[in-house]
Automatic annotation (TrEMBL):
Residues 182-271 form the Glycoside hydrolase family 2 immunoglobulin-like beta-sandwich domain. Its EC number is 3.2.1.31. GO terms for biological process: carbohydrate metabolic process; glucuronoside catabolic process. This is Beta-glucuronidase. Residues 597-610 have a biased composition (Polar residues).
Length: 626
């Protein structure tokens, strides 16, 4: 699916702003049939939960309604008219006046409705959207619905981050010509020591001759092509590199023999990605991931996309020396991935399959564990929904050079009966949909190198480990031993690249101690330093993603005080002590670990106040190796 874009043949109207808003049950029957009877207005894009000051809205389980009016530009009379939602979390039904025009399940991928013929250009229509936040055993992510003492539905789920919902990304109305491009797929390769190959495949609404040109950053055309598929050769290609993004522009046109019928353009980064033995290679060179698991999460807007936070978060990634992040635990707004493309940040792109693990539910609720994979729990329908999520994610993000790996799920119960039967077809599907990128899943602590049933199916073994926090809490000496034994077990068994996809300790900004005290800023720094000592002793280690970039909002739980505090930055992006220690390590890794290039291509100067003189808090990687 092509992202909406204004081009020579396409026009775009943004529908963000303030929409009428109401909870289902407060608006009368068939609310889409007239103006919503409400005085509430909700910001779009934003999750609705924290916009108001009402518990009833924040905790609402079920449908909410959004509505606004939209005028179709009158110049669009010969055009195809498309309505596009960048996301509706987690499911939506869309009405144009009285007509249902689209239904979509899945909270983090776009969907469209073709309104051609339904609405006359120049006129106005009533756009009403029902958004459903409910999670069940057959949704991705899964959840559980129960009925409370008051007869109202209650939602629980198997992940800690808050179940923000609503229209958290942009909404668009756009035009295309009737005969139009429907999709472009680009893959790249590098041969003969520097010739870039850009292979393309076009899809169109009807047969039409096509031509394209590839333009470099200075505006020179470096290759041209014709037809619906082919390969462009770029001599002495400037490669897209971590920390040194370079984007060509692919301009595509379809013709009717004489005229340009439709035009579209796509940024193209020429690069290769591969896993070879125990190495993760970008452009044939070993790459070491430094960075974070993130969240789309800010105060008030919840998961609402915000360009100011986007810019600031990337500056902070750069500041810490991070070269990458994982889109834990769902696909992020496409603007984020495009920004990563332009700024040379590497992305591990994850589906919304978090919480396929009922052992975690048992741990959180104290109830006896239920089997994760069974007809009553995660079942064939869940697997079908998961497959659809993978299709939509790969369809949206396949052309982004920053995306170097697909993460099929976070912490599934990979040690349980049924895990292999559930995941093997999904991993196979991922490879079929995109044969060019490696695949991973992240392994929960209960999955050991002995009992895990998935690691042989993936390219990179990604581990989430919390030794010193959830295990051996506060005892970093024991934690160090346990961690090393654990990692060595995986290394010996699989002979694959290993990365730490999560490690972290909750930390209250401003809490200090001279002792090793969990929740203090010093403990977080010491915890990370302990992890780093171990990572540096494992030769097949290819990366470290701290959990989490910033503190984030969670559902109610007795082990969370005002959210998850494992952030290196607070929720409003102030650095904790560990941020400086991380910056020292990651900027210092450059040149010491293969490929640990920071976002500015290793240009960092460590000018931050040095709170980390004590060797126990931070040991530069190079020192351990000499
Ligand atoms: C995990 C999960 C992540 C949680 C984290 C934590 O293993 O993958 O979603 O937030 O632990 O802090 O407990």
């Amino acid at each position: 699916m092509l992202k909406p874009l204004a081009t020579a043949t396409r026009e775009l109207v943004n529908l963000d702003g303030l929409w009428l808003f109401g909870l289902d049950g407060t608006l009368g029957p068939e609310p889409w049939k007239s103006r919503l009877e409400t005085r509430l207005e909700a910001a779009v894009p934003a999750s609705y939960n924290d916009l108001f000051a009402e518990q009833k809205i924040r905790d609402h389980v079920g449908l909410v309604w959004y509505q606004r009016t939209v005028r179709v530009p009158r110049g669009w009379s010969d055009q195809r008219i498309v309505l596009r939602f960048d996301a509706a979390t987690h499911a939506a039904a869309v009405y144009v006046d009285d007509t249902l025009v689209a239904e979509h399940v899945g909270g983090y991928t776009p969907f469209e409705a073709d309104l051609t013929g339904l609405i006359a250009p120049g006129t106005e229509f009533r756009l009403t959207v029902a958004v459903d936040n409910r999670l069940t055993n057959i949704t991705i992510p899964p959840g559980k619905l129960t009925v409370g003492a008051d007869g109202q539905e209650r939602q629980t789920y198997f992940h800690d981050f808050y179940n923000y919902a609503g229209l958290a990304r942009s909404v668009w109305l756009y035009s295309t010509p009737r005969s139009h491009l429907t999709d472009i797929t680009v893959t790249t390769d590098v041969v003969d020591g520097g010739t870039g190959l850009v292979s393309y495949r076009l899809a169109t609404s009807e047969p039409a001759p096509a031509s394209m040109r590839l333009i470099d950053e200075t505006g020179n055309t470096v290759a041209t092509g014709e037809g619906h598929s082919g390969t462009l050769r770029v001599e002495d290609a400037v490669l897209w590199r971590p920390g040194a993004a370079y984007l060509y522009r692919l301009e595509v046109e379809i013709h009717d023999g004489w005229h340009v019928v439709d035009a579209y353009e796509l940024p193209v980064g020429i690069r290769t990605v591969a896993v070879q033995g125990e190495q993760f290679l970008i452009n044939g060179e070993p790459f070491y991931f430094t960075g974070f698991g993130k969240h789309e999460d800010t105060a008030i807007r919840g998961k609402g996309h915000d360009n100011a936070y986007l810019v600031h978060d990337f500056r902070l990634l750069d500041w810490t020396g991070a070269n990458s992040f994982r889109t834990s635990h769902y696909p992020y707004a496409e603007e984020v991935i495009e920004f990563a493309d332009r700024h040379g940040i590497v992305v591990i792109d994850e589906t919304a399959a978090v919480g396929l693990n009922l052992a975690v539910e048992a741990g959180l609720t104290g109830q006896p564990p239920r089997p994760t994979f069974s007809p009553e729990t995660i079942n064939d329908q869940t697997q079908a929904a998961h497959a659809q999520h993978l299709r939509e994610l790969i369809d949206r993000d396949k052309n982004h050079p920053s995306v170097v790996m697909w993460c099929v799920a976070n912490e599934p119960s990979s040690n349980e009966d049924g895990a292999r039967e559930y995941f093997e077809p999904l991993i196979k599907l991922t490879r079929e949909l995109d044969p060019t990128r490696p695949v991973t899943t992240t392994a929960v602590i209960f999955a050991t190198s002995e009992n895990d049933r998935l690691a042989d199916l993936v390219d990179v073994v990604s581990l989430n480990r919390y030794y010193g926090w959830y295990v051996a809490t506060g005892d970093l000496e024991t934690a160090e031993k346990l961690l090393e034994a654990d990692l060595r077990g995986w290394a010996a068994k699989h002979g694959k690249p290993i990365m730490m996809s999560e490690y972290g300790a909750d930390t209250i900004a401003g809490l200090h101690s001279v002792l090793d005290t969990p929740w203090t800023e010093e403990f977080q720094a010491g915890f990370l330093a302990m992890n780093h000592r171990v990572f540096d002793r494992i030769p097949s280690f290819v990366g470290e993603h701290v959990w989490n970039f910033a503190d984030f909002g969670t559902g109610p739980a007795i082990h969370r005080v005002d959210g998850n505090k494992k952030g290196i930055f607070t929720r409003d992006r102030r650095p904790k002590t560990a941020a400086f220690a991380l910056r020292e390590r990651w900027t210092g890794l450059h040149g010491r670990k293969p490929g640990s290039i920071t976002a500015q291509n290793g240009q960092h100067q460590t000018t931050a106040p040095d709170f980390t003189q004590e060797p126990a808090l931070s040991t530069p990687a190079g020192a351990q190796r000499s």
